[in-house]
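hey so i finaly got around to running the thing on Oxidoreductase from Dactylosporangium sucinum. pasting the sequence first so u can double check i didnt mess up the copy paste, my clipboard has been acting weird all day
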Amino acid sequence: MLVGVSGLGSIGLQHITAFAQVPGVRLVAFDPDPGRRAAAAAHPAVDRTTGEFGELLDAGPGALVIAGPDHVHPAQLRAAADRRLPLLVEKPVAATLDEARTAAAGVAATGTPALVGYVLRHRLVVQRTRAALAGGEIGEPVAVHVMLGAYGTIEAAVSRFATKEPDRLYRDYSHEWDYLRWCFGPIARAFAAARTVTSVPHVESPNCVDGLLEFASGLRATFHLDYLEPLGTRTVQVLGTGGTLLADFGRGTLEVRARAQGRDRAVRHELPEPPAGALARQAAHLVAVARGEAVPLVTLDDGVAALAAAEAVRSAATAEAWRDLPPLY
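ok and heres what it spat out for the 3d tokens, dont ask me to read them lol
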């Protein structure tokens, strides 16, 4: 199968490497920048590159990855859907929530299979965590806490962060909103407070956000996101009526402690893998969807919902309302 890749920045090149691991796949790649095209053309899985998006579609790919800047996503989604071309669009679906909703509705009207690049759903440890929760291994969840430290993202994608963009953190880590929805259901409300810490070499504004989500079920989750901590922390802890769960998505570990029939049980799952492993599974999944062998794991509706959560958190942080405590004596 020929797969098209639109956008050859850092994530586009990662997609090329991932698809090269899928048997029988060859690639055609588009980017308006000659230097990026040259970098992609050096990959042995790439048959050709082009500086015109129309030429990419005319090459006749059986599936398409849209990995360019957010603002180009809607037009490329429409063009792919017009040709009924199965596709994967990187998150966020669009630059604004209204554009994302419109684009998703347009694609849905054509019946075109479409995925969103929330690649965490393809990580083994995330899948095992969801299975543990769905299987009732810790009973009914009653509290959730998410921790994300991501200064390393800035160090790994210097060119993208060279462009100033306020409020980037909420969308860059909408991965968190997606896997929380996947595990716990629709998000109904959000509260957040943000600040900007200036003691790091590269300062995003804001670069530290803390808050609270409420799910439609009534379950609540606290969260912390930052572009400050350098080690790459990404954990979720869940307390339940029958035990506790601690998942480290970065390191690929899951610890489940539970009590059943008066006995305590502790199980530790070791599922480490490089990020490229999940990207390769996502690539194989797109190929399977394009062949009619699978349905999308992450739909455009999921992508719109994650963007809606990101916008709700951003809006809540902008309008945060604190209540002062009375003086203590």
